[in-house]
Amino acid sequence: MSDFLHMGGYAFYVWTSYGIAFVVMLIGIIKPLLVHKQQLRGLKLKRQRGQR
Amino acid sequence: MIMRFLHKFSSPPYFYSISGRLLPWLTALFLALLAYGLYGGLVTAPADYQQGDSFRIIYVHVPAAWMSMFIYVVMAVSGAIGLIWRIKLAEIVSISSAPIGASFTLLALITGSLWGKPMWGTWWVWDARLTSELILLFLYLGVIGLYSAIEDNRTASRAVAILALVGVVNIPIIHYSVEWWSSLHQGPTVTKFAKPSIHIDMLIPLLVMAGAFKVYYAIALLLRCRNELVQREQGSRWLDEILENK
Amino acid sequence: MSADSLSNAFLSVVRRDLLLAYRHRAELINPLAFFVMVVTMFPLAVGADVELLRRIAPGVIWVAALLASLLSMDAIFRSDFEDGSLELMVMTPHPLSVLVLAKVTAHWLLSGVPLLLVSPLLAVMFDIESDVISVLLITLLLGTPVLSLIGAIAVALTVGLRKGGVLLAILVLPLYVPVLIFASGAVDAAASGLPVSGQLYMMSAMLFLAITLTPWPTAAALKMSLS
């Protein structure tokens, strides 16, 4: 297991690469999801105001 | 029949509901491919003879680079479809792809840099592939910048489609000239990012990761397209009905 | 349209642009002065070592030419956009691509040609041999029209925007890379006594490609900007 984490001495480079990839791709999913929630909330508010 | 399919598919409410139903399946597919690819790349594949375990960066670097180019082509083609046939969904697909493509380009550059440092001692090398990726990043930034500078969405989509098409024609030319330039200053040493002699156990995880990244692109694209669609279709009836039911 | 009236249209657009530029001829100096000043900055920045300067000269002169060309690029369409003559041009029965080609030709005559004339002086400042200077001139002759042609696309895309300037540079510089690489590559090769025909053929190919392919996206972009 520790061999695996050690990556033959290249641990920093390998894990940083995978880590950054993971973070970038995660943000790429979470951000649109958050925007979607915000949008729907905002539109619902607009509708309610319009209907009054 | 294809035109009918495209017509149906490009209707906003249809697209919105279909994409909503596809997303969970795509997510499952992505996670499965990712798990298989990561296991293959990090555990099963034997360490490279010359580069040791650092070569494993290839499993994010190469798929990211492939995606950066693939997405640009998709962006240009959908842009062209939007430009010629004025199909809104094509415009949306085109501009939604840009930030995803730019992220992959950035990722390719960063992982390329991290791969190069232990091998050749410097954080940056002016080799053909990294330099081309850098220029590709600038092309993406241009598209994103131009779109945000134009107020009207539909005009902006037209502008960006023209730019993306000009870019896509230029990319092979740029790539070729950078290759030529790089070979001048390289000398007889090994080209910096020559792939390790590819063993089948090394190749399969690479292809699986490439597939996983493609599915990821589909997921991220659908999410962004839905947002852009909602933005553009404010006030329309189908959207109101959805809001009512939520 | 007969071919006759088409060439008339072409020539009258070129003539008009040249005339307008002549009326503001003080402004013609600006890109040229910029060119000379940028080139002068480099020895100040890297030191006066003649060997070093001779090696970086082709690249420096070409990058300075790129930047100077960018400066005057905006002018191709902006003033016409603002006073409405661009709209008139779009509405004429003549194909817009031809008129675009005319405007780009005028731009090249006004910005590219002066660069061509001044660059031998700069080359001498960097102690480049005369046969290398002639290669430099050929690359500038083949390359500056390409800069104008490709730049026109980016200008057409941004002409309707208020702060188009910096965006223009971002859009166009990646597209300039092949010209830059082969031009400075040719001059470098000449300086080392190596053959330059390959690079020059590439540049000619790029020139013909640019003449034939760029007017269409430029025209489309103009129509988009006017809408």
How does this model look, in words?
The complex is a heterotrimer of chains A (52), B (246) and C (227). Chain A is mainly alpha-helical. Chain A has two helices and no strands. Chain A has a domain at 25-52. The mean pLDDT of chain A is 87. Chain B is mostly helical. Chain B is 81% helix and 0% strand. Chain B is globular and about 60 Å long. Chain B is built from eight helices and no strands. The radius of gyration of chain C is 18 Å and the shape is globular. In chain C, 47% of the residues are buried. Chains in contact: A-B, B-C. The A-B interface holds A 4, 7-10, 13-14, 16-18, 20-21, 24-25, 28-29, 32-33, 35-36, 39-40, 43-44, 47 and B 42-43, 47, 52-54, 56-57, 60-61, 64, 99-100, 103, 106-107, 110-111, 114-115, 117-118, 216, 219-220, 223-224, 226-227, 230-231, 234, 239-240, 243, 246.
Throw out a few tags for this protein.
heterotrimer; A: 52 residues; mainly alpha; 2 helices; C: 227 residues; 10 helices; 85% helix
The major beta sheet of chain A can be summarized as: none
Helix content of chain C: over 70%
Q: What structural class do helix, strand and pairing data of chain C support? A: mainly alpha
Describe the global form of chain C.
Answer: globular
Return the average pLDDT of chain A rounded to an integer: 87
The rough form of chain A would be described as: rod-shaped
Oligomer: heterotrimer
Q: How many strands, what sense, and barrel or not for the largest sheet of chain C?
A: none
Q: Count the E strands of chain C.
A: 0
Question: Using CB atoms under 8 Å apart, which protein chain pair has the greatest interface?
Answer: A-B, 25 and 36 residues
Number of helices of chain C: 10
With helices defined by DSSP (H or I, 4 residues minimum), what is the helix count of chain A? 2
N to C succession of SSEs of chain A: HH
Q: Roughly what percent helix of chain A?
A: over 70%
Strand content of chain A: under 5%
- Whole-Å distance between the termini of chain C? 26 Å
Uncertain ranges of chain C = none
SSE topology sketch:
The complex is a heterotrimer of chains A (52), B (246) and C (227).
Chain A: H1 2-6, H2 11-51
Chain B: H1 2-9, H2 12-44, H3 58-85, H4 88-120, H5 128-149, H6 153-186, H7 200-232, H8 237-245
Helix pairs in contact in B: 2-7, 3-4, 3-6, 3-7, 4-5, 4-6, 4-7, 5-6
Chain C: H1 3-23, H2 29-46, H3 50-73, H4 78-83, H5 85-91, H6 96-125, H7 130-158, H8 164-191, H9 197-213, H10 215-226
Helix pairs in contact in C: 1-6, 2-3, 2-6, 3-6, 3-7, 3-8, 6-7, 6-10, 7-8, 7-9, 7-10, 8-9
